[in-house]
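Q: I'm building a small set of examples for a reading group on sequence design. Run inverse folding on the following structure and report the sequence directly after it, with nothing in between.
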């Protein structure tokens, strides 16, 4: 079970697969499946409120498949338990990101001074470039 704020994700919604890790561990790495691949179906999860689900699915994250399944791979540590904890912490962080509603952007006009500075810069650049091209070699 993973708890994030007022959202609780039960064990039944998490799919864990243990695979061989590529990290530290010497010969142990070739024998023991310590890496964890955690899968969480964002699109079909009944524990996520609809606005949070939409925000999470709208994120452009390479860990989300086309079906809306979040795949987290954890192999930082040498033990399966620690990698499992790490994967769950990363899932909690990901879901927590979806809890925050982004503030709407307020459109603003550029100030008169900023317009003048921009145009002055353009004029300056223009004169520099004109100076490079117009050369009388007579």
């Amino acid at each position: 079970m993973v708890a994030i704020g007022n959202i609780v994700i039960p064990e039944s919604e998490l799919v864990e697969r243990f695979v061989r890790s590529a990290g530290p561990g010497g010969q142990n790495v070739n024998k023991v499946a310590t890496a964890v691949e955690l899968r969480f179906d964002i699109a079909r999860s009944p524990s996520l409120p609809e606005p949070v689900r939409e925000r999470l699915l709208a994120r452009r994250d390479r860990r989300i498949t086309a079906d809306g399944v979040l795949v987290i791979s954890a192999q930082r540590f040498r033990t399966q338990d620690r990698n499992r904890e790490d994967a769950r912490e990363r899932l909690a962080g990901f879901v927590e990101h979806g809890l925050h509603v982004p503030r709407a952007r307020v459109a603003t006009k550029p100030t008169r001074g900023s317009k003048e500075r921009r145009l002055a810069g353009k004029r300056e650049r223009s004169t520099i470039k004109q100076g490079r091209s117009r050369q009388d070699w007579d």
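The domain at 2-99 is CATH 3.30.160.20 (Double Stranded RNA Binding Domain).
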